[in-house]
Amino acid sequence: xxxxxxxxxxxxxxxxxxxxxxxxxxxxxxxxxxxxxxxxxxxxxxxxxxxxxxxxxxxxxxxxxxxxxxxxxxxxxxxxxxxxxxxxxxxxxxxxxxxxxxxxxxxxxxxxxxxxxxxxxxxxxxxxxxxxxxxxxxxxxxxxxxxxxxxxxxxxxxxxxxxxxxxxxxxxxxxxxxxxxxxxxxxxxxxxxxxxxxxxxxxxxxxxxxxxxxxxxxxxxxxxxxxxxxxxxxxxxxxxxxxxxxxxxxxxxxxxxxxxxxxxxxxxxxxxxxxxxxxxxxxxxxxxxxxxxxxxxxxxxxxxxxxxxxxxxxxxxxxxxxxxxxxxxxxxxxxxxxxxxxxxxxxxxxxxxxxxxxxxxxxxxxxxxxxxxxxxxxxxxxxxxxxxxxxxxxxx
Length: 396
Ligand SMILES: Cc1ncc(COP(=O)(O)O)c(C=O)c1O
Ligand SMILES: Nc1c(O)cccc1C(=O)C[C@H](N)C(=O)O
Description:
The protein is built from 12 helices and 15 strands. The chain is α/β, with parallel strands linked by helices. Strands 4-10-9-8-7-5-6 form a 7-stranded mixed sheet, with helices on both faces. It has a 4-stranded antiparallel sheet with strand order 11-12-15-14. Pyridoxal-5'-phosphate (PLP) binds at residues 96-98, 126, 128-129, 166, 170, 195, 197-198, 218, 231. Its cofactor is pyridoxal 5'-phosphate.
């Protein structure tokens, strides 16, 4: 069977194929950039029109209560919860991932105790996490220790307050061992904060099952919340009472409208809130999450692995050996939902791919990054992307 035929067969058998119609996409483009900005779900424009015209335009201030604006951060957190394996009441939506990394790290250091004087961060982290961790370490008088992911488990010890780890590496697509690293952190008496930006909505995370302490993630990638949609913060239920937020804004007060000069933290997930939520973005995200109704995250993972396997197969068949090198692990247990190919002229190659309708990312210094969003990427897309990649490379 040739590869286009194989793609057709795989698409016919794909139980998620109907979900593509739930997104605004054009058939001329193969969109492999959902790990940077997810596509627009068809549920969003109508909902936004209603939020603006009726809830804001006509109800105005009444919408904080009558339209459920005030409680949106917790309500939408509960909608994300099953996708990352969390029971309700532990996730709050708001702010950016960067801000939530700060809250989680400083909150964890405060819970860990004074004798634990190190913050460990994975050395390959997405830059914002590293920058924030450095600042959090300076502010809390801790030492920042950057460790290669494969050495993380042995680096955790009696001095570790908290480790901040990316679940999936944004550049290589490597999936880190969340159960193993979490268990090692706990064995060392330390806490762990996971950055789920590249795994939430792409694969099962199992936050509760693995006893994760705190986690953060963005919602504009695999959760399709839109540009700059708010991030989320998970604090495990039994840690919530001890979570002392470094940004105790009035929205996290036990009685915000009491307007008391004395701060008293709210119970539960709302303790992670800060100031007034970004309602328009937040409600766009809520509408976007409707596409997940009746979609098991396990089915998404199965298709994701099938898509990345098929892409690697097509690249191997179409691109002459030695012209690209995959830096994404071949083993399923170590692979997220993207494939990263290394080539010295990756920037120019990605430019040509985009000009031919295959949209991925270039990441410094030499990485072609292709993200596979199982809800709307087809096997035919995958075959076409690999074929166009081979054409572009053959001209260089
Ligand atoms: C792993 C990771 N963390 C954090 C961020 C950024 O977070 P923010 O929402 O603050 O821009 C990204 C992507 O932008 C990311 O890939
Ligand atoms: N957040 C982004 C943005 O505001 C503009 C462009 C790209 C992004 C991204 O999300 C980048 C992404 N985190 C990455 O893994 O490279």
